[in-house]
Amino acid sequence: MSSRSKKRTRQEASADITPLIDVVFLLLIFFMTSTVFKKSELALLLNLPKTESGEKASQDSKVLTIELSKEEVAIAGKKFTVDELDEKLAAIKDKNKPIDLRVDKEVQYARLVKILDVLKKYSLTNLSLITEK
């Protein structure tokens, strides 16, 4: 019993969490750099025409984006009919507001002219046609 009567000392077990913190930060950096950031609110999947040279679409939040596909029209990521498009564009007070027009390459010319006519009707002439490089 004498060996059992000795008091055992309890050692505290402490884990070194420094490597764990390093791993967490490395994972955080990895996911931040590999994530695709949402560039703009787009509603329609468009097959844009390709060009040899051109400018990228503006990333400015003040730019109004109009998308035109064979059947649908979208403004700032929300789908509208052509009549609703007319009402939405009539409400724009700033006539110099920049507008990015994204048109699918399969859209018929008459449909594009109809949209351009509505833009001209409200004197919205600060227009950029967006293409792919």
From TrEMBL:
Keywords: Cell membrane, Membrane, Protein transport, Transmembrane, Transmembrane helix, Transport. Signal peptide: none annotated. It is a single-pass membrane protein; Single-pass type II membrane protein. The chain crosses the membrane at residues 20-37. It comes from the Bacteria. InterPro entries: ExbD. It is found in: Cell membrane. Pfam families: ExbD (PF02472). Belongs to the ExbD/TolR family. This is Biopolymer transporter ExbD.
